[in-house]
Amino acid sequence: MPDDEREKREFVFSDEPQSCAVYAEGVKQKHLLVAADVDRRFIERISADARFATRHAPVRSEEELTAVVGDCEILVTRAYNRVTRRVLEAAPRLELIAQGTSGIDNIDAAAARERGIAIVSLPGENANAVAELVLAFMLSMTRTIPQYGREVLAGIWRRDDCATRHELRHYRTGIVGLGEVGRRVARLASAFGVAVSAYDPYLTDDDFVQRGATRVASLDALLRQSDIVTLHLPLTAETRRMIDAVAIASMPRGSFLINAARGEVLDQQAALDALASNRLGGLALDVYDPEPPTASWPDDPRLMLTPHIAGCTHECKAAIGERLYEKIVAFYELS
């Protein structure tokens, strides 16, 4: 889920957060460290549960996380927390990492497995929020809303070319990765009459039927036939830089590219170069490599940028808080 930049704070909710206290039933409390900004309702609910000794110390860097993990047995994280081998070594009692987002590419899963540390996450919880922003990008780029907005602010009233803009159903849309977010994008786009195709080698033909997209056999074929391409891939060794300069060059001239997955799946500079050369007609990014981005951006209304907020809505954060608590309790088979 996207990450809100907030003032760093530390709240201690247990009377003795550094001790292994015992609650009324005679069961040891589990030391739980919330190292990320999560929904306040999660904090309130977990801190009110006497089975957990909860400490809230949101941090950003690997260095900070290493310094605070200490004696925690449960570590609550989000995508911006880099849970490296070094962090794990600093937490000798760690049993469970509870990730408040869908992906876990920020966690050294191999190092966790070596230690027998379990990982739970929330796949699909932010899917609707992400899909809605993707549709907003699609509509904004195809109707050139940012450009018109700039012109009106500048006192320009130009309507002569409005009939050159198309309704969304005019555009063939290709989805790379038909998981929880991709399937919701397919459903929402279909409501506009869009012909939706997708590439995902890990799904069956029946999956494609159920998820409302036409199967395309290869990534290259999908890129060549799509006017709008939207990326919904997890970050893995296979998907890193999957959409590079060669892939972008295969897309139809004037097509639109959206990345609301992970910054590393796209060669960002290649995409910017394609926009500058008019190979792309629009580029929308919600994710970057690195985050926050260090690149300088062209002053181009065809470029739409948001600060990794696709999955950040009131409803999504509330649901994640509830599910995260439930998953932690279920892991320990507590009722």
Briefly, what is this?
With 335 residues, this protein is α/β, with parallel strands linked by helices. It is built from twelve helices and 13 strands. α4 links the parallel β5 and β6.
Give an account of the 3D structure:
The chain has 335 residues and is of the alpha/beta class. The protein folds into 2 domains: 11-123 and 314-331, NAD(P)-binding Rossmann-like Domain (Rossmann fold, 3-Layer(aba) Sandwich); 127-305, 3-Layer(aba) Sandwich (Rossmann fold), CATH 3.40.50.720. The protein has 12 helices and 13 strands. It has helices at 40-48, 62-69, 85-89, 109-115, 127-142, 145-153, 180-191, 205-210, 219-225, 245-249, 268-276, 314-331; strands spanning 11-12, 30-34, 52-56, 74-77, 96-99, 118-120, 173-176, 196-199, 214-215, 228-231, 255-259, 280-285, 303-305. The strands form 2 sheets. It has a 7-stranded parallel sheet with strand order 9-8-7-10-11-12-13, with helices on both faces. Strand 7 (173-176), helix 7 (180-191) and strand 8 (196-199) form a beta-alpha-beta unit. Helix 1 runs parallel beside helix 12 (314-331). The model is unreliable at 1-24 (pLDDT under 50).
Largest sheet: 7 strands, parallel
Query: How does CATH name the architecture of the largest domain?
Result: 3-Layer(aba) Sandwich
Q: What global shape is seen? A: elongated
Q: How many distinct helices?
A: 12
Structural class: alpha/beta
Count of DSSP strands: 13
Strand fraction: 15-25%
Alpha carbon gap, first and last residue: 28 Å
Determine the CATH superfamily of the largest domain. Answer: NAD(P)-binding Rossmann-like Domain
Give the rounded overall mean pLDDT.
91
